[in-house]
Write a structure and sequence with these properties.
It contains 23 helices and 15 strands. The chain has helices spanning 2-18, 48-52, 60-69, 73-79, 97-110, 143-158, 174-186, 189-194, 196-213, 216-229, 233-257, 274-283, 317-332, 346-358, 392-409, 416-436, 448-451, 459-476, 480-484, 494-504, 506-515, 519-539, 548-572; strands at residues 33-34, 44-46, 80-86, 90-95, 124-128, 162-169, 263-266, 288-290, 293-296, 306-309, 336-342, 367-372, 375-377, 380-381, 444-445. It has a 5-stranded parallel sheet with strand order 7-6-5-11-12, with helices on both faces. Strands 1-2-4-3 form a 4-stranded antiparallel sheet. The longest helix is centred in the middle third of the chain and has 25 residues, at 233-257.
Length: 580
């Protein structure tokens, strides 16, 4: 990566200076290399001279000059047009045309691998994402965990990590006591079987409506869940049906979204492992009995205690989550476990990670909570029990219909099958990008107009830009393979240089998105790249360039842009159709 290369060059320069008798020895501080705000300040800049100036008893400008003069001459000549120090002591690097063109050739050579790396080689990461609840509708609120988790999965895999996607299904807990009670009292299983998720949602909402009138229903629900935990035949029969109905529904939604998760284990899978967790916690004396329940208190009361067994002997999802961590560590031996779960679980996951550490299940620093903000209605948070969930499938179908209308209006020569396929790619892409273009921590207000917007900073805008690039390449009548093997390239226009420099940032954007668990960094980069390409298209003749050499260079830039857009969209889980 370019930033790493520059940091290493600066470090070598300082170490070279330190070998001189008159130059003081000191621990070299972190060397940061950043993009400058304006192009007049170079392609990259570093403030390292200001950091070490006081230590070497020089002004920042003098320190900068010393660093520049000690850079390896041969490397400097190959990479840079110039390196300068400007007030108050920034070192600015300007790349040479030869270096930029080598970068362009690299994109064309590596193709779909451009931007990937092996920095994750030998490392495993488990990502816990999606995690819908059995017998509840797959609402728009589930979208965030599912597509953010998948994008992070894709990005880490692209960087060489061995990634395991684990769909931790909510198929256990007191909510099933509520549902079993509701089915037994008000349900018709034949009617439920015809439209299970819809009917189960109605029954779940009805239970909570009735429980507000009769508080004893909550006790009935707890009794049914306790029966389920003990293996009661009737409770287990109804529960198994709920699981079967739900998994069929989830698979359909995942297929529509293009989501592929490696394993899907419900909370029930860990049921046989819970006694071992509780026993271990008591044996290690990190858990205590309190009013009949078993809790894990934390040192100096830094966090509220975590309950792992209720006073009636029933377990909680905290018990199951600790068993899940133990299983993942033993099964996969990951270097890190990521949890893509809503921000309303921040406190709970702090408790969980700390409890895991106390139990000897690794360092809590090896767990990370990607706490996404909520998808909300203008009137407030969506709640299944209140019956105001917006079904995700309805949103996706509406997005596809809207996209199809736009395609039909264009009166293209595409077949009906092609139009349907493209409408699906655009509609699903619009929904995904609307989410992924925001930082995961931000709340999103659900807005039909915004989520289905096909203009501006949107998925369809990026797809349209890709289609434009593909169209130019088709019209050129030069095979992509021929363009990618061009040797004689020459940059002549400012817009060419700006576009190419932006293309070369792609690998660093991927690494930064992985490091910060932020797919929005990639989304925003692709949007800016699309803007730069469209400006390049408007200002610079491509197919009508004055000479063949210029035309081929510009076609190489078009091909490189199409490749980077396609690579980036794929990491976000968004299709890139070649026609629209």
């Amino acid at each position: 990566m370019i930033k790493k290369t520059l940091s290493n060059l600066i470090e070598k320069s300082i170490k070279k200076l330190q070998k001189e008798k008159t130059f003081p020895k000191f621990v070299i501080p972190e060397i940061k290399v950043e993009y400058p705000e304006t192009s007049s300040h170079g392609d990259y800049t570093s403030n390292i001279a200001m950091k070490i100036a006081g230590v070497i008893n020089k002004s920042p400008a003098q320190a900068g000059e010393l660093i520049i003069n000690s850079l390896p001459k041969t490397t400097t000549k190959l990479l840079f047009e110039k390196v300068e120090v400007v007030s108050p002591g920034f070192i600015n690097f300007f790349f040479s045309e030869d270096f930029l063109l080598e970068g362009l050739k690299k994109i064309l050579k590596e193709k779909k691998s451009y931007g990937s790396s092996d920095i994750g080689k030998g490392k495993k990461i488990v990502i816990d994402y999606s995690a819908p609840n059995i017998a509840k509708p797959f609402g728009i609120g589930h979208l965030r965990s599912t597509i953010i988790g998948q994008a992070i999965y894709n990005i880490y895999q692209f960087l060489g990590y061995k990634v395991i996607g684990d769909n931790h299904l909510g198929d256990w807990g007191t909510q099933f006591g509520k549902l079993i009670y509701a089915i037994k009292r008000w349900g018709d299983e034949k009617k439920i079987a015809k439209n299970p998720i819809y009917e189960l949602n109605i029954l779940y909402v009805k239970f909570h409506e009735e429980a507000e009138k009769d508080s004893e229903l909550e006790g009935e629900a707890r009794l049914w869940f306790k029966k389920l935990e003990k293996g009661d035949r009737e409770a287990k029969r109804i529960w198994k049906k709920c699981v079967k109905w739900s998994l069929k529904e989830f698979d359909r939604i995942y297929k529509l979204l293009g989501i592929k998760i490696d394993i899907a284990l419900g909370e029930s899978f860990y049921q046989s492992k819970l006694k071992g967790i509780i026993k271990k916690a008591l044996d290690k004396k990190i858990a205590i009995r309190s009013r009949g329940a078993i809790i894990i208190p934390f040192p100096n009361d830094i966090l509220p205690p975590l309950m792992i067994q209720k006073s009636d002997g029933a377990t909680l999802y905290s018990t199951r989550d600790l068993a899940t961590i133990k299983y993942r560590l033993e099964k996969f031996k990951p270097t890190k476990i990521l949890y893509e779960i809503g921000t309303d679980q921040v406190l709970y996951l702090k408790q969980l990670f700390f409890a895991a550490e106390l139990l000897g299940l690794g360092d809590k620093k090896n767990y990370f909570h990607i706490s996404h903000g909520m998808m909300r209605l203008a009137s407030g948070k969506m709640r299944t029990r209140k019956g105001n969930t917006i079904f995700l499938e309805e949103v996706l179908e509406e997005a596809i219909k809207k996209s199809l209308k736009v395609i039909v209006k264009k009166k293209s020569k595409l077949s009906k099958k092609e139009k349907d396929k493209i409408a699906k790619a655009i509609g699903i892409g619009a929904v995904k990008y609307n989410d992924l273009s925001h930082h995961y921590s931000k709340d999103i207000i659900f807005d039909w107009k915004k989520i289905l917007n096909l203009k501006g900073n949107s998925g369809p805008y990026l797809q349209y830009t890709f289609v434009r690039a593909c169209s130019i390449l088709r019209k050129s009548r030069i095979q992509k393979q021929g363009i990618s093997k061009l040797k004689e390239l020459k940059l002549k226009e400012t817009q060419e240089i700006k576009l190419l420099k932006q293309l070369l940032h792609f690998p660093e954007i991927i690494e930064n998105a992985a490091r910060t668990y932020s797919p929005n960094l990639l989304s925003n980069y692709l949007f800016k790249l699309a803007q730069s390409f469209n400006l390049f298209y408007e200002l610079v003749p491509i197919l009508k360039a004055k000479d063949e050499e210029t035309k081929k260079t510009r076609l190489a830039l078009v091909l490189a842009t199409s490749q980077v857009l396609k690579n980036g969209l794929k990491l976000l889980g968004i299709d890139a159709p070649e026609k629209m």
